[in-house]
Automatic annotation (TrEMBL):
This is Uncharacterized protein. It comes from the Bacteria.
C-alpha cells in the first residue's frame, strides 16, 4: 500500500495526513510534551464507523515511532476497506 503524505498544515513539522487514491485515510502526529513526549498518535479518519468497521481493533492509537504509527494506520485502513467490501457500506 502506498499512501500519499502531506503536512497537515504548511507550517507544521511531525504532523502528516495520508491519502490513498484521492481518499483521506488518516493522520499521524508526534506528541511534543507531557508523559507521552516524542511518541506518535495515529488515527484512521477516512473511516467514521468506529469499532463497527474493525471489531474490537481500534481506529486510532499511539506508537513509539513514526514508522510504527504508519504501520498501525495502514493496518487499520486495510481492516476498514475489508469491512467496507464485505458489508457494501461506504468508508466515510
Amino acid at each position: 500500500m502506498t499512501f500519499v503524505w502531506r503536512r497537515t498544515f504548511p507550517d507544521t513539522h511531525h504532523d502528516f495526513v495520508a491519502e490513498e487514491a484521492g481518499q483521506h485515510v488518516g493522520r499521524i502526529k508526534r506528541i511534543d510534551g507531557g508523559p507521552q513526549n516524542s511518541s506518535w498518535t495515529w488515527t484512521c479518519t477516512g473511516c467514521q464507523r468506529g469499532h463497527e468497521a474493525t471489531g474490537v481493533r481500534p481506529l486510532n492509537g499511539e506508537a513509539a515511532t513514526r514508522d510504527e504509527a504508519i504501520e498501525a494506520l495502514a493496518a487499520a485502513w486495510d481492516r476498514a476497506k475489508a469491512w467496507s467490501a464485505r458489508t457494501g457500506r461506504p468508508l466515510a
